[in-house]
Design a protein that fits this description.
The structure is a single chain. The protein has 810 residues and is of the alpha+beta class. The chain is built from 25 helices and 25 strands. The protein starts with a helix and ends with a helix.
């Protein structure tokens, strides 16, 4: 212990004598260790930490798919799901969740109307998961029967945010706006239990889905189950596929039906796993660059300490003792870098949580804790071994007589210089890998932001209505409501057009879909028709969204009940049914009989209203014609000024015009666009930060090596100048060497990037992982930075006085 303390004191004095070196090494380590710790913290929350259920990898969710018809998530009817549960051999316990997942419901909060996301589940749902409430109790099978008391269980996040984590929440009630139902809170589930994704509370399935006055429970459900001992997800998938093809009663099933099985962790984490893995790989490269950089600094410093090491050896210090002394210095650097790295990690984690998309799972669990501290210690220890051991061993290896007879600069072997240059080339290669990944993600984000929506998003307000269903429970009353409300909204100064719409923007599976058939198609031909997005709209719809009518006409007030049934198709749908023909006047069928036959009166572009990444083929129906059992209750409002400025006036008009109707929420279209862009923007930001740090560290490394080369070769440069070499000759010589190192690194990095970028496929949009333009751009950037990093030492070489250089002895 005395020896260790002595080594640490000597190491501290040595670092104080070289504050520039110590500062550079500590800051470099702080950056690498801090970012690595921050990413470890995120990865721990999203990937490594177990869900608060029993054996989560044994819990699976199941549904059907028909790939050839474009249906990748199709639910089972509740009767079929119960039949599957009775006959299964691969599933031990079976529960059900409503197909719509966590669905927003209007809730009365005093005089305000807010929305909470409701998940309907069977009474044994939490028994299957094995989740233990943190407060109260979970739902029970006895809650999931007709006539049972209306109870709910809160998510942990809702309990904290809405009720401040108060234990007195048990027994309180949520009042539903639509029918004044009071739901009693009986429990709170643990943090991290987030299935269906985004659920604010869970309620029993049967009471909510039972037709009033009957015992008929009509529900489309997904199955949630625990695998039987020895069963695998693949076995459960095969059993479900066989069931769908041969047993189920639903008309959509057939020989092309397939089962889909996902484990619970995959569903809770969603699409974050690829992004976290990419970020983890990027920060691992950054940490490696950091270690190489500090290792190079130690090697360069060691070249200047050869005489000191030789003197120590001459006084009796063995090589092992010298290595321990050098490792003590590195340990002090690592500890200081680790402590500062924790500060960097804390700032990075706070920034990540602040800019992360709101839908990111387990966001409330991401913070520095004991696990993160242990991770920081482990990362620091690994970094110490990587950057310190080899330089200590190499620096301790000296030829005593040679060193004592020569100057320190001459004792620096050519092999050691080549090693430092090779390490810098490696840094540049790793930086290029990270930089190319950031470039691809950035290009993908640009492509996504420039995606052609085929409508005008400016001055567009999207509102959601909340109704009292005891007053507006059927389509006739809802149409009467809209007939009264829409003229009043159009009369508001600043409102240019208004129409109801089926779903809010980018609702994905939250909209309505169908597969119409063209008149005259055979059954086989109709089976190959695409699934179309369905919209039910007022005559103002196309003006409200700024969608041009390409052929024919739009809807008019005359397209009402009693008039001929009409529809408008999007371009790709019309092209599918009648290629190279004019679709106007053609007819599509939504079912058997004349009451389900519609005449096409116009065509419009495919739009990206439901999904940003893909333009959807659509079919539009006029609001006034009775085909659907319910009316759409969201609003698209085109304004002449800032949309948000009209929200108070719209809210007042709705409240004054119709009792039992409220504006539950309203936001400009841009607020919805932020949703699908949030994750790509976060990916681009984080990878951009990593890439910038990697390039900066590589540039510092190259600068250090070139500056050291100039310093060590002072005598040689002086001789060259004495023999007639000009300043330009010396600049070119230094620049040539620096660029040779950089070019070698970029070649190696380009080869590695072409392989590594394949990991990004799931994060890219309309950009190839081998995109030549991106690779050329990032290579040019890196070579430009390398040129600047070499230029300063190159210029300093021209300021050497030949006389002083020739007299230098090191």
């Amino acid at each position: 212990m005395d020896t260790l303390l002595q080594d640490l004191r000597v190491a501290g004095r040595g670092l104080r004598r070289t504050p520039g070196f110590a500062t550079a090494a500590i800051l470099t380590l702080a950056l690498g260790i801090g970012l690595a710790t921050a990413v470890f913290t995120v990865a721990d929350a999203l990937l490594l930490r177990q869900l608060p259920v029993r054996d989560p990898d044994r819990v699976v969710a199941l549904w059907g798919e028909l790939r050839n018809r474009g249906l990748d998530h199709y639910p089972l009817g509740l009767a079929d799901a119960r039949a599957l549960a009775r006959g299964t051999h691969t599933l031990q316990q079976v529960a059900f969740t409503a197909y719509e997942g966590a669905w927003p419901q209007p809730v009365r909060d005093g005089d305000r109307i807010t929305r909470l996301r409701q998940a309907l589940v069977s009474g044994n749902f939490f028994d299957v998961l094995g989740g233990t409430p943190v407060l109260g109790r979970a739902l029970r099978p006895s809650d999931d029967v007709i006539g049972a008391a209306a109870v709910i269980v809160l998510s942990y996040a809702t309990w904290q945010q809405r009720y401040g984590g108060s234990p007195s929440v048990l027994g309180q009630q949520l009042v539903m706006y639509g029918d004044d139902r009071a739901l009693t809170i009986v429990g709170v589930m643990p943090q991290g239990l987030d299935y269906p994704r985004g659920a604010d509370y869970w309620a029993p399935l049967t009471p909510a889905k039972t037709t009033p006055g009957t015992d008929s429970t009509l529900a489309d459900v997904d199955v949630i189950a625990r695998l039987a001992p020895g069963a695998t997800p693949a076995g459960a998938r095969a059993e479900l596929t066989a069931f769908l093809r041969h047993t189920a009663t639903r008309s959509w099933t057939g020989r092309d039906a397939r089962g889909v099985v996902h484990t619970l962790p995959r569903l809770v984490l969603g699409d974050t796993r690829p992004a976290v893995l990419v970020f983890s790989a990027a920060v691992a490269l950054l940490l490696l660059i950091t270690c190489i950089n500090v290792g190079n600094l130690l090697l360069v410093r060691g070249l200047g300490r050869v005489r000191e090491i030789a003197v120590r050896s001459a006084l009796g210090a063995g090589r092992g003792r010298v290595i321990l002394q050098l490792l003590a210095e590195s340990a002090l650097l690592a500890v200081a870098g680790g402590v500062m790295g924790l500060l960097v990690a804390a700032a990075a984690v706070r920034t990540f949580v602040a800019v992360a998309p709101a839908g990111l799972p387990r966001l409330d669990e991401i913070h520095l804790d004991a696990t993160a501290l242990a991770g920081a210690i482990a990362i620091t220890g690994v970094a110490l071994l990587v950057f310190a051991l080899a330089p200590a061993v190499m620096t301790s290896r000296v030829e005593l007589q040679q060193v004592l007879r020569a100057d320190a600069r001459q004792s620096a072997s050519r092999g050691r210089r080549r090693l430092t240059e090779a390490l810098v080339a490696g840094q540049i290669a790793l930086a290029l890998v990270v930089l190319s990944a950031a470039g691809l993600i950035a290009r993908s984000l640009i492509q996504l932001e420039r995606a052609r929506l085929s409508f005008d998003p400016s001055h567009l307000l999207i509102g959601e209505l909340a109704l009292r269903y005891d007053q507006y429970g059927d389509r006739t009353k809802q149409l009467a409501l809209l007939a009264t409300l829409l003229p009043e909204l159009r009369a508001i100064p600043g409102v240019r057009a208004v129409s109801p719409v089926v779903a809010i923007p980018f609702a994905g599976s939250g909209g309505w879909d169908s597969r119409p058939a063209a008149e005259g198609q055979s059954t086989e031909e109709a089976a190959a028709d695409p699934i179309l997005n369905m919209e039910v709209v007022a005559p103002d719809y196309f003006a409200a969204l700024g969608i041009p009518v390409l052929r024919g006409r739009g809807f008019t007030p005359q397209d009402r009940q009693g008039a001929p049934l009409v529809v408008i198709l999007s371009q790709s749908a019309a092209r599918h049914y009648w290629p190279d023909e004019n679709p106007i006047g053609k007819r599509v069928k939504m079912g058997p009989g004349p009451a389900s036959t519609f005449t096409v009166i116009g065509t419009v572009p495919d739009t990206r209203y439901r999904e940003l990444r893909e333009a959807r083929a659509s079919i539009y129906f006029p609001l006034g014609q009775p085909y659907f059992p319910y009316a759409p209750l969201n609003l698209a409002i085109r304004t002449s000024g800032p949309p948000a400025a009209l929200v108070p006036a719209i809210r007042r008009v709705i409240g004054a015009t119709l009792p039992g109707v409220a504006l539950a929420s309203a936001a400009p279209f841009d607020a919805f666009l932020d949703g699908p862009l949030a994750q790509p923007r976060l990916d681009a930001l984080l990878l951009g930060i990593f890439a910038g740090a990697a390039v900066a560290l590589a540039a510092v490394g190259l600068f250090g090596v070139m500056a050291t080369m100039v310093r060590q070769r002072t005598r040689e440069l002086g001789v060259r100048m004495a023999l007639g070499a000009t300043g330009s000759d010396l600049r070119r010589m230094v620049l040539r060497r620096g660029l040779a190192i950089a070019i070698a690194g970029t070649f190696a990095g380009a080869a590695a990037a072409l392989l590594a970028n394949r990991l990004l496929v799931s994060l890219l949009y309309r950009v190839s992982p081998t995109d030549a333009l991106t690779m050329a751009a990032v290579t040019a950037v890196l070579l430009g930075v390398a040129t600047l990093a070499s230029l300063i030492p190159a210029r300093s070489s021209t300021r050497i006085d030949p006389v002083i250089a020739l007299r230098a002895d090191g």
